[in-house]
Write a structure and sequence with these properties.
The complex is a heterodimer of chains A (about 110) and B (about 120). Chain A has about 110 residues and is an all-beta fold. Chain A is built from no helices and 10 strands. Helices cover about 0% and strands about 50% of the residues of chain A. In chain A, the strands form 2 sheets. In chain A, strands 1, 2, 4, 5, 8, 9 and 10 form a 7-stranded mixed sheet that branches. In chain A, strands 3-7-6 form a 3-stranded antiparallel sheet, with no helix packed on it. In chain A, β4 and β5 form a beta hairpin. Chain B has about 120 residues and is mainly beta. In chain B, strands 2, 4, 5, 6, 9, 10 and 11 form a 7-stranded mixed sheet that branches. In chain B, β5 and β6 form a beta hairpin. Classes of the chains: A mainly beta (about 110), B mainly beta (about 120). The interface between A and B is medium-sized, with 23 and 20 residues.
């Protein structure tokens, strides 16, 4: 499986916005609109928060949004809240290996 | 409410075997591809295997191909992972995941811990 590049950490104060990047290649993020994002709190299972680049499952606050430009997908968390402090992972469908995963980004709410 | 409950994890010696199970409820199991994802302690997510809705297609990560076998029983709403020739690097929490297509990993179990150590 291929690897997508995420920054190891990001932070923001309550009420601010934070954006996490997920950089792949023309064989994964750049080719397919099948990027998803997951939130994982310590000791918990990951939770789907964005799929197909920018779609939100029911129940996920609209503070979470996704986008893509070229080979880079992005997750933006607006109006940061204390409960948004978590690890975030991106996943993309990919040629060949069929899936590419990011290494995760730890978001800290200051 | 959707539930995915994994079982079968535990401590095994290198070279040993384990069979993980996952019981699904609260959604139409046969409508979903199913996926196993693992996470080593303190590490990121790693895709392990997929199985088609009807069990006709299996896909594996290179790291487990030939050693692990994914299967399902739609009559029992259950997913399985047979793990043979286990290595120290297979130690992880294994998650059972309902895959809504194109890696929309919609529903996750709570995970089961596999420890490989002598």
């Amino acid at each position: 499986q291929s690897a997508l590049t995420q920054p190891p950490s990001a932070s923001g104060s309550p009420g601010q916005s934070v954006t996490i990047s997920c950089t792949g290649t023309s064989s994964d993020v750049g080719r397919y609109n099948y990027v998803s994002w997951y939130q994982q709190h310590p000791g918990k299972a990951p939770k789907l928060i964005i799929y197909y680049v920018s779609e939100r499952p029911s129940g996920v606050p609209d503070r979470f949004s996704g986008s893509k430009s070229g080979n880079t997908a992005s997750l933006t968390v607006s109006g940061l809240q204390a409960e948004d402090e978590a690890d975030y992972y991106c996943i993309s469908y990919a040629d060949g290996t069929q899936v590419a995963l990011g290494g995760g980004t730890k978001v800290t709410v200051l | 409410e959707v539930h995915l409950v994994e079982s079968g994890g535990g401590l095994v010696q290198p070279g040993g075997s384990l069979r993980l199970s996952c019981a699904a409820s609260g959604f139409t199991f046969s409508d979903y591809w199913m996926t196993w994802v693992r996470q080593a302690p303190g590490k990121g997510l790693e895709w392990v295997a997929n199985i088609h809705k009807d069990g006709s297609i299996e896909e594996y990560a290179y790291s487990v191909k030939g050693r692990f076998t994914i299967s399902r029983d739609n009559s029992r709403n259950s997913l399985y992972l047979q793990m043979n020739s286990l290595r120290v690097e297979d130690a992880a929490v294994y998650y059972c995941v309902a895959n809504g297509g194109w890696y929309k990993l919609a529903y996750w179990g709570q995970g089961t811990l596999v420890t490989v150590s002598s």
